Amino acid sequence: MKQISLLCALYILTMSHAFAAWQLVKETRDYILYVDLDAAEKNGARVTLASSQDFHKMQTLGEHQYLSSKSVTEFDCEKSVMRQIAFSIFPENMANGGALISEDQPQQEWVPLQQASAAEALWQKACGQN
C-alpha cells in the first residue's frame, strides 16, 4: 500500500497540465473541482484518486498565495472517511506557475467527511454515490 501511495503522490506532483482526463465534479461561487476518475485506484472498499481545485479568489496558506491545488486522496467508501496522501498548491489556475508547496506525506489518521464539502463531492464520485 505504501508503494501505491508513493506512486500516487508522484503522479499528482508530476502530472502534465493537460486536463483532458479531468471531469468536473462541483462548481461553486468559490471554486471549481475536478477529478481524474480514469487514474483512480480501487483496493476493496478504498479508492485513491487525484483531484484538482481552481479558486476564483486568491487563497493563502502561510506566506503563499495561490489560485489552484492538486491532491491525492484516499477514501474508505464503507466508513465515509478520507485521508490526504499528497497535495500541491500553485500560484495560477489549472496548476500553472510551478508548485509553491508540495507535500507527499500521507495523513495517518482518517477523518470523517463534512457534509456538502469538496471532499464529500469527491467521495461521491470515488465511491459511485452519484
How would you summarize what this structure contains?
The chain is of the alpha+beta class. It has 2 helices and 7 strands.
CATH class: Mainly Beta
Task: Look up the CATH topology.
Answer: Lipocalin
Structural class: alpha+beta
- Largest sheet features: 7 strands, antiparallel
Overall CATH architecture: Beta Barrel
Layout of helices and strands, plus pairs?
Blueprint: H1 2-14, E1 23-27, E2 31-43, E3 46-61, E4 64-76, E5 81-90, E6 101-103, E7 111-112, H2 118-126
Antiparallel strand pairs: 1-2, 2-3, 3-4, 4-5, 5-6, 5-7
Describe this structure in words.
The N terminus is likely disordered. This protein has a single domain, classed as Lipocalin, CATH 2.40.128. Strand 4 and strand 5 form a beta hairpin. The relative contact order is 0.20. It is α+β, with helices and mostly antiparallel strands. Strands 1, 2, 3, 4, 5, 6 and 7 form a seven-stranded antiparallel sheet that branches.
Q: What are the defining features of this structure?
A:
7-stranded antiparallel β-sheet, Lipocalin, alpha+beta, single chain, 130 residues, 48% strand, globular, disordered N terminus, 2 helices
